[in-house]
Amino acid sequence: MSKMIFVNLPVADLKASMAFYEALGFENNPQFTDETAACMVWSESIHVMLLTHEKWRTFTSRPIPSTDSSEVMLALSCDDREAVDKLNELAAKNGGTADINPTQDLGFMYNRNLADLDGHVWEMMWMDLSGMQE
């Protein structure tokens, strides 16, 4: 089996969060979805597990961060700059927040940050290593 990552995120409203991630292009895997959790697939190796607060608390007693804090910034690579821009626009149109940090454009690398409905931070980025200065 190839190596995979499952990012687990606590969410206040599972159905709304599923709709948000589907709007960004994630696909739901019903095999790992029920009324307490949803598996949202970005690629063959990247999966996001959306967990109700009750389900989350079965894994840890640590507090759930507030929506105005940042516990981590997760970066996803995109095919081009336009895809980065599109994902930020889709986030804003679907209840998330686009551009929570300043856009970074280094020529060979471009990124914009968005937050989902629960304030989880995602960095959508594109990089062309052939254009990078040595």
UniProtKB/TrEMBL annotation:
Domain Glyoxalase/Bleomycin resistance-like N-terminal as annotated: residue spans: 4-41
Transmembrane segments: none
Stored Pfam families: Ble-like_N
InterPro entries for the chain: Glyas_Bleomycin-R_OHBP_Dase, Glyoxy/Ble-like_N
SUPFAM superfamilies reported for this sequence: Glyoxalase/Bleomycin resistance protein/Dihydroxybiphenyl dioxygenase
Name recorded for this polypeptide: Glyoxalase-like domain protein
Protein's organism: Neorhodopirellula pilleata
Organism lineage string: Bacteria, Pseudomonadati, Planctomycetota, Planctomycetia, Pirellulales
